[in-house]
Model the fold of this input.
Amino acid sequence: MTTDTLPPLRDVIAKYDLAAKKSLGQHFLLDLNLTGRVARAAGKLSQCTVIEIGPGPGGLTRALLAEGAKKVIAIERDQRPIVALQEIAAAYPGRLEIIEGDALTIDPASLCDGPRKIVANLPYNISTQLVLNWLENITEYECLTLMFQKEVADRLAAQPRTKDYGRLSVLTQWLCDVRLDFNIKPTAFTPPPKVMSTVATLVPRDKPLVDVDRKQLERVTQAAFGQRRKMLRASLKSLGVNGEELATKAGIEPTKRAEELSVQEFCALVQALNT
Done:
């Protein structure tokens, strides 16, 4: 780890008038001890390229570089922090690339050769969509270490028969091991969000839990959780099949509800749908 000799983040924000924009879901983490902890949660960084989404004034960017990231590619939609990020790039020659653009329309894996990781304090208003996008090519990454609203992180890691368990839980755990690293209080951010935040790490599996088609799994989980209070024999009808027969064929009680099924059981429904 190297020592960060750049100006305090509050001074950077004042110098460049970088007040967080609510429309962009911005909440800046200014405590360099906490940004360092986020960077360390992603494991060893010296042999990989780290892609960061929404760096803002660069608190986490600085931590990633100080913790030894071989290279950081920072994707920032907001034009205002670009000059401040360029100052960080000058302090770490050749190790920071800044891309001005919308992370929702950029495939991070296309930006660099592997190995690669994504580490980011995600804009809360697009965090779920970003994860769903990245899951499509999840094996391109060693891991994703991401900060979410706590309720979103809880959904990623949720187990069956809990209130947080849903489509996001199934689709994520089908492809990844999910680890909840630590929580961060609202007061650590500027401006403080109304909710607790959680850093979570997604580690891609070598292969999916069960070999089924992703689009079909999305269809089945949409049908089941779209009417989550209904039994499968009723909710699965929206697939255009006899729900009772499909569940029985998959070896699942038709009177069960979506929240009671394991990831493997959802995969069994997909397999039954295709036979």
User: Anything to note?
Assistant: The chain has a mean pLDDT of 95. The chain has two domains: 9-204, 214-273. Strands lie at 28-29, 49-53, 71-76, 96-100, 116-121, 143-149, 176-184, 189-190, 197-204.
